[in-house]
Amino acid sequence: MRLNELYATYKDRVQFYIIYIREAHPANGWQVPNNLIDDILVPEPTTDDSRTEVASACQIALDLHMPMLIDSIDNDIDKNYVGLPMRQFLIDADGKIAYAGDKGPFGWNDEAFEDSLKKVLAG
């Protein structure tokens, strides 16, 4: 992923946000082998404050430079945008979805996102 690069390139013209939604692989849920190997054992947060703590740790650990917003514990963003496991969305100046990437991680496509971004910026 080129998140930091895209952010650095376009942040003066576009508002970027990462939205942290519910934990994809909580320690008390569907744990994946790589998380066990890397000792990433995060229980599913049960409050907005605990989700914010996990999101902050994630942002620091992954060296993500763009601002991060936190979905509320009732998962409104995830429910409305089907963000799990991870998705890219581009919302144009009229508030319409100009790009909706496929579900990640395999559907994550920085090139397609950037192509759509360039089209939106060109008008």
Total beta-strand segments: 4
Strand order of the largest sheet: 1-2
CATH topology: Glutaredoxin
Large-scale geometry: globular
- Average pLDDT confidence is 90
Provide the CATH top-level class.
Alpha Beta
Order of helices and strands: HEHHEHEEH
Question: Given the structure, what is the number of helices?
Answer: 5
User: Which structural class fits the helix and strand makeup?
Assistant: alpha+beta
The residue fraction in helices comes out at 25-40%
The major β-sheet equals: 2 strands, parallel
- Report the C-alpha radius of gyration, rounded: 15 Å
Termini, distance in Å? 26 Å
CATH architecture descriptor: 3-Layer(aba) Sandwich
- Low-pLDDT runs: none
Fraction in beta strands: 5-15%
Domains counted in the coordinates: how many? 1
Fourth-level CATH superfamily: Glutaredoxin
Descriptive overview:
The chain has 123 residues and is α+β, with helices and mostly antiparallel strands. The chain has one domain (3-122): Glutaredoxin, CATH 3.40.30. The chain is built from five helices and four strands. The chain has a two-stranded parallel sheet with strand order 1-2. Strands 3-4 form a two-stranded antiparallel ribbon. The longest helix is centred in the middle third of the chain and has 14 residues, at 48-61. The model has no long low-confidence stretch (mean pLDDT 90).
